[in-house]
Each structure stands twice: as C-alpha cells, then as structure tokens.
C-alpha cells in the first residue's frame, strides 16, 4: 500500500473509535428504552434497576463477545480465502492470469501492458495472491490483536452508556419520577454523543446528533407503549 | 470486476443472510439473558414478559435503525471519498500518479510498465478514481437500496429470535418454572442457529454452534447473578 501523507486525511474513524461508537450507541439506547418501557408498567423503581442492570450485563456480554467472534471469524475467513487463492494460482494459473488481465483491461490498459502486468504477477506468487485478495475479493489483511481490544471497548462503552439512563432510577423510589429525569438526561447524552460521533466519523455533527436522539427516543417510546399496553 | 464463475465459490454469505444472522444472534441472546436475569429477582412471570417485550421493541428498533443509518452513512462516506479523489486527480495529479506507480512497483512491475499503466490511468479519470477507491481506500460502491432491506431483516430477525426465549414466560405463571423451559428451549435454538449460521458463513458448524450457545449462556448467567445479587 502507498504510504503517502495524504492518506491520513481520508482516515476519519479509527477502529477503537468505531468500537466505542458501536457500544455506546446501543448502551445509551436499549437500557434507556427498556427502563422507560418498564416505567410504563411498574411503579417500583427497584424492578427497573434490576431489569436495567440485567440488560446491561446481557447486552455488554452479547455485544462484546459478538465483536470478539466477528473479528476472529474475519481473520479466519481471510486466512482460508488466502489459502484458496494460493491453491488456485498453483492449480488453475491460466484462469487466474485471465482474471488479472481482465481487471487491467477494464482500466484501459493496452494488450502489451496487460501482458507485462500478468507476467510480473506470475513471477511473484505472494504479491499475486495479495492482489487477488484485495482486488477480486475486497479483503484487507486483519489485525491479529483486534478481537480482544474490540470486545473490551464495545462492552465497556455499552456499560458506561447504559448506566447513564439507569442512574435516575437508583436514586428515585418512584419509577415515574425517575423516568422524567432519565428521559431528559439520556436525550441530552444521546445528542452530545451524536455530536461527538459526527465529528469523528466525518458526518455532519447536527445530523448525527439528530439521528442518535431520534433512534433512542423512538426505541424508548415503542418500549413504553408496548409495556403499558400489556401490563 | 471479473465475472468469472469461480468467484461464486468464494461467496459464502449474502448481505441478507448477514443481516438475519446479526439480528437473530442478539435477539436470541439479550432478551433470553434479560428474562433469565429477572427470574433471579422476581417471581411473577408477567413482569418478565413485560420487560422482555419492552426489550424486544427497544432492541429491534435500535438495531434496525442502527443498521439503516450505518448503511446510509457508508453510502455517504463512499460518495464523499469519491468526490475527494476526483478533486485530488484534478488538483494534485502528480501525487496521485505517484501513488499508482508505487502500487504497481510493489507488485514487481518494471519502470517501463509502471509508466505505461500510469499513463493509461490518466487517460480515463473515472476508472482511475474507481481504482483509487478500491485500492488505496479499500472501498466498494454501496448498494443504494441496502439501508432499508438491511433494517427490516435485522429488526425482523431480532423480534423472531427474542420471542423464542420469552414464550415460556407467557404460558407459565411462575418465573422459575418458565426459566427452566426457557433455558432448555433457547440453548437448543442457539445451537441450531449456530449450526445454520456456520453453514452459511463458511465456519465449522459445530464450532459456530458452540460459540452462539456459549455467548447466550454466559450472558444469561451474568444477568441472572447480577439481578439476584441486587434484588
């Protein structure tokens, strides 16, 4: 890959920021909506706290372990596709050479240049496989340490995000009183989170804030209406 | 892109299967763990059902809308990077030409061929941008309809997955009785889901079944212990 300086301008979100965003977005939204929903059905804030903490434990483990397994399976997928490409280059080199040639014909190269590129590839099987991985399959080599850090950041962000909407229920006895405070606090937190997320991901901050607030608000309203209807 | 037949052998999971897997994995896990957790704290199965349905509403909206917004923002990200590449090709063509040259030098092309490839690229700015998008940034053009179908499949799979662990609580009065049935039914469902998921994603089915069952079991155990400790 080219390491020229201007690449960094393209890089708007690092992997860790992405993991924090994933965990925090759901952590602020789902425990918030669950607590709001339960407030529509039960008066005791203690039950809301119990359910909320159970949800935070369940959600952070499910998301963290999910992120871990996804990163692991991406790495395994890459390794197995790489083995397959090596095998194809050995067993059906003519087909693979034709694929390289077709790619470069599409970019407007003349037959002489296409022949030269194909010939250069066949002399370096390792680079040839890298080229096919990236170009034919669109796969980038994965970072081996990614799975663990990814799991930790997703789960941690989920827990922190989930404790914000739940905190009011820990201090108020009555679930309805806590609900009002939780709604205000969490909608503000969702908006701030959306603003910061927008800055990091390159989206317009106000639009991003509107999206996170709306998602949380919709999820909470739906949960509240459903819980009230069946209680 | 080359459209040779052997590409399809690489293709193990379509976008829709991926969305169903994402929604179902969390739908089977989080409502299951929440219901199990609440069963450690309250005896009334009705409260578990209320909390579970509120969670399914919240989780499916959060995940579905999250998938929708992620697909939309991927599309916007692609468009904005594409504009930037077009601009760079116009404004700093020498730097961009050097990047193309560096890429092909790494693949072992001689200077003559590198020069010819660069020259061919500069004659077709559209293909040149496509090349940089895919090669320098690793970005594929997004499907414009993706956001809506993605949201619907993720949310639908979450609801279906979430109703499986919750069903026993709807028929049993006592939460502890329902818990036992829910644990058995859901662990079997998680294992079956893992097997099918493994087949579609190319992972070893037994390993995949073990992973989904373990994730759900761990999340439920943690939620149960936390809820019981504070109740």
Give an account of the 3D structure.
2 copies of one chain form a homodimer. Chain A has 231 residues and is mainly alpha-helical. Helix content of chain A is 84%, strand content 0%. Chain A is built from 9 helices and no strands. Chain A has helices at 7-10, 15-39, 45-91, 93-106, 111-123, 125-135, 146-171, 175-201, 205-230. Chain A is elongated. At the A-B interface, α1, α2, α3, α4 and α5 of A face α2, α3, α4, α5 and α6 of B.
Give the count of helical stretches of chain A: 9
* Helicity level of chain A: over 70%
Cα(first) to Cα(last) distance of chain A is 59 Å
Strand coverage percent of chain A? under 5%
Shape of chain A: elongated
Largest sheet of chain A: none
Keywords:
homodimer, 231 residues, mainly alpha, 9 helices, disordered N terminus
In short:
The structure is a homodimer of 231-residue chains. With 231 residues, chain A is mostly helical. Chain A is 84% helix and 0% strand.
């Amino acid at each position: 890959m080219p390491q020229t300086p201007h690449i960094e301008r393209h890089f708007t979100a690092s992997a860790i920021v992405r993991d924090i965003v994933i965990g925090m977005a759901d952590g602020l939204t789902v425990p918030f909506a669950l607590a709001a929903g339960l407030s529509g059905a039960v008066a005791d804030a203690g039950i809301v706290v119990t359910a909320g903490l159970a949800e935070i434990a369940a959600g952070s483990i499910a998301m963290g372990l999910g992120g871990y397994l996804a990163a692991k399976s991406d790495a395994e997928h890459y390794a197995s596709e790489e083995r397959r490409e090596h095998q194809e280059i050995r067993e059906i080199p003519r087909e693979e050479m034709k694929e390289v040639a077709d790619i470069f014909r599409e970019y407007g190269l003349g037959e002489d240049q296409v022949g030269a590129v194909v010939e250069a590839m066949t002399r370096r099987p390792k680079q040839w496989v890298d080229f096919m991985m990236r170009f034919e399959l669109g796969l980038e080599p994965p970072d081996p340490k990614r799975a663990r850090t990814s799991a930790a950041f997703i789960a941690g962000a989920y827990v922190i995000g989930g404790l914000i909407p739940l905190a009011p229920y820990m201090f108020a006895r009555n679930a309805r009183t806590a609900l009002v405070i939780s709604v205000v606090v969490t909608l503000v937190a969702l908006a701030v989170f959306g603003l910061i997320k927008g800055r990091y991901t390159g989206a317009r901050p106000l639009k991003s804030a509107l999206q996170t607030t709306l998602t949380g608000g919709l999820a909470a309203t739906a949960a509240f209406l459903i819980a009230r209807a069946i209680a």
